[in-house]
Write a structure and sequence with these properties.
CATH architecture: Up-down Bundle
Shape: globular
CATH topology: Growth Hormone, Chain: A
Number of domains: 1
Structural class: mainly alpha
Distance between the termini: 30 Å
CATH class: Mainly Alpha
Number of strands: 0
């Protein structure tokens, strides 16, 4: 918890806590709304795809743009626009004007805003703690906050959906953004230095660093493999909740919450890590846990075992994603951080989008269980490759850390 000794980070942490719970409530409500209106697994995949794919297309260029501007000012602006998106979605749903087309449009808008929001928040964390030694802990605590919201938000969403409506859940999310906006406005810190040159030149500089650094390339490849396969489980959870386990929105919330419980445990574990090169073994182990747990969830029809498997899936995915983020940000030069974070979020969420779209269509053709079995097997094959490169990755991360200040 050492990063919480910094006042600015405490403010950010408190505001983010409220905002994250609201975001998870909206995500669960939106997935349930789509499946309730259409009963289509393919449309679940399309909605998830539209919400995430802008981060693959826009994200890398957003990182270059972010490094050239006042990050704090633009974070407040982006958060305000995301609040407006939630209120519009709530209004359309409450009025009965919502349709699959509107849902897809709102998801696409949120995805575009998130392409800027994620890199803005992540790249500002270093200035909030003011100490490079405390940065890995701050990143782990930030991820722990995200996953605690993931643990709390979905079950709360399930209860709210049973008692109120999707529109009410969307409105709650809209108000939750105000907490983070207030926290950012209260922060007192020196703005990070801005990159010089055109957006194209700034982008090329970041891309050259990422491509020429073997450890960065390998870690981003790991992100792609993990999120193209294991992370797609989220798209199909409404199908499992309704069709496999004969449940309702409350059960969907508990399944999502079980994955969030595992993810929260993963980030608590990562917050105790001190050696950045030592995180490489943790990342490899996390990908293996995610693959095995996904196979177990796909194969079982016993709810208790499925809940346990969801804990494992959440733990493995979070250890891998958050661990890679900690390694990349701790090893990257300060002036390139916005671009490196953007490459991370692009791979993390962009291929999550592609994986969700693919999973939706595969589930429509072959069934949700067979789809997750296939994806778990593919990830397991990649895990073998990752373990074979583990030692070289440790060495390269160590070298990158030694060079970061002199790059």
């Amino acid at each position: 918890m050492r990063a919480l000794a910094h006042r600015n980070f405490r403010l950010y942490f408190a505001g983010q806590a409220v905002s994250i719970v609201g975001s998870w409530i909206q995500q669960v409500a939106l997935a349930w709304l789509v499946y309730r209106l259409t009963g289509s697994a393919a449309l679940l995949g399309i909605t998830a795809f539209c919400g995430l794919i802008p981060q693959l297309v826009v994200g890398p260029f957003a990182g270059a743009w972010i490094d050239k501007h006042d990050k704090r000012k633009w974070l407040v602006g982006v958060q305000s626009l995301m609040a407006m998106q939630a209120f519009v979605l709530a209004g359309l749903t409450w009025a009965g004007w919502i349709s699959p087309g509107f849902i897809i449009a709102m998801a696409l808008l949120l995805g575009i805003l998130s392409s800027f929001d994620g890199p803005l928040r992540q790249s500002l964390i270093g200035s909030f703690v003011g100490s490079r030694d405390d940065l890995p802990n701050a990143l782990a605590l930030n991820a722990m906050l995200f996953n605690s919201g993931r643990f709390v938000g979905p079950p709360v969403a399930g209860l709210l959906l049973a008692q109120t409506s999707e529109a009410f859940c969307f409105a709650i999310n809209g108000f939750s953004f105000l907490a983070l906006i207030a926290a950012i406005l209260a922060v007192r810190s020196t703005p990070p230095a801005r990159a010089k040159g055109s957006v194209g030149e700034v982008f090329k500089e970041g891309l050259a660093y990422a491509w020429q650094t073997w450890s960065v390339r390998t870690l981003i490849l790991t992100l792609i493999a993990l999120n193209l396969t294991a992370s797609a489980y989220a798209v199909l959870l409404p199908v499992f909740a309704a069709d496999v386990f004969a449940g309702d929105a409350t059960l969907l919330g508990w399944l999502w919450g079980a994955a969030g419980c595992g993810a929260f445990a993963a980030t608590v574990f990562l917050a105790t890590r001190h050696s950045v090169p030592g995180l490489v073994a943790t990342v490899a182990a996390g990908s293996a846990i995610a693959a095995v747990s996904l196979l177990l969830f796909a194969a079982t029809e016993r709810l208790a075992l499925a809940m346990l498997a969801m804990v494992g899936v959440g733990f493995g995915i979070s250890v891998c994603n958050v661990g890679i983020n900690m390694i990349l940000q701790s090893s990257a030069p300060e002036r390139l951080r916005g671009r490196i974070v953007a490459f991370f979020t692009s791979a993390r969420f962009g291929f999550d989008a592609l994986g969700g779209l693919l999973a939706g269509f595969l589930a429509s053709a072959f069934g949700a269980g067979r789809t997750l079995m296939f994806e778990g097997a593919v990830l397991l094959v990649f895990v073998v490759f990752l373990f074979s490169r583990r030692q070289r990755l440790v060495e390269q991360v160590t070298i990158a850390q030694e060079k970061r200040d002199g790059y």
